[in-house]
């Protein structure tokens, strides 16, 4: 079981996550049960060796205000502490700098686990199925 | 800040000033405590090479490569230096900025 502390009063629930392609970068992602897919900033994907020249898959997604067509990447892995998912898809999209994060942890990661959000104690728990 | 002052402390990118500590040209700096370094640069974006992480996956030992109030400046700087295998980018201010509500 993975247990991570968070600030229950924060505007965003953010966690350090390791994204891996050829290289690894640890970035801060916001947990978002409203996001179908994980979202990662373009420059963070470039930093781990992803080449946008080789991008073949595009995906359409809608946020609160508009629709975007963006590259879709398959990461070697995404890890939140020792909760790790391999070969996970992520959308390439750069959120506003003012958010202070590099992307979102979406449902395609979260649904691999039983998740507990204890706002009383500020603890996120993840239990991998099986 | 004048262009000359920026040049003395780091580099001027299209997106703003980006400073780097000594050792950016290949000199080996001693590994540092990342949490201690973060305290020295409030409300800035920091870029590290990572040497060690804790059980929660948070980098704890590493080498500061650059820092800037501008994330875009940090990204431009990264594009101009030799890449390391494990890097870390963090913002030392509030996430999101104070007074901002986020609807994702």
Brief summary:
The complex is a heterodimer of chains A (130) and B (104). Chain A has helices at 42-47, 107-110, and strands spanning 2-5, 14-20, 24-31, 38-40, 58-62, 67-80, 83-92, 103-105, 113-118, 123-128.
As a whole number of angstroms, the C-alpha radius of gyration of chain A is: 14 Å
Shape of chain B: globular
- Alpha plus pi helix count of chain B: 3
Oligomer: heterodimer
The low-pLDDT segments of chain A are: none
The biggest beta sheet of chain B, please?
4 strands, antiparallel
Mean pLDDT of chain A: 92
Number of domains of chain A: 1
Percentage of residues in helical conformation of chain A: under 10%
Please report the total strand number of chain B as a whole number.
6
Characterization of the model:
The complex is a heterodimer of chains A (130) and B (104). By secondary structure, chain A is mostly beta strands. Chain A has a single domain (12-113), classed as Beta Barrel (Cathepsin D, subunit A, domain 1), CATH 2.40.70.10. Chain A has two helices and ten strands. In chain A, the strands form two sheets. In chain A, strands 2-3-8-4-7-6 form a six-stranded mixed β-barrel. Chain A has a three-stranded antiparallel beta sheet with strand order 1-10-9, with no helix packed on it. The longest helix of chain A is centred in the middle third of the chain and has 6 residues, at 42-47. Chain A is globular and about 45 Å long. The N and C termini of chain A lie close together (11 Å). In chain A, 39% of the residues are buried. Chain B has one domain (3-21, 30-91). Chain B is globular. Chain B is an alpha+beta fold. Chain B has helices at 3-9, 34-40, 71-78, and strands spanning 10-13, 16-19, 32-33, 45-53, 59-68, 86-91. In chain B, a hairpin with a 5-residue loop joins strand 4 and strand 5. A four-stranded antiparallel beta sheet of chain B has the order 3-5-4-6. A two-stranded antiparallel ribbon of chain B has the order 1-2. Helices cover 21% and strands 34% of the residues of chain B. Chains A and B meet through strand 2, strand 3 and helix 1 of A and helix 3 and strand 6 of B. Strand 3 (24-31) of chain A pairs parallel with strand 6 of chain B, so a sheet runs across the interface.
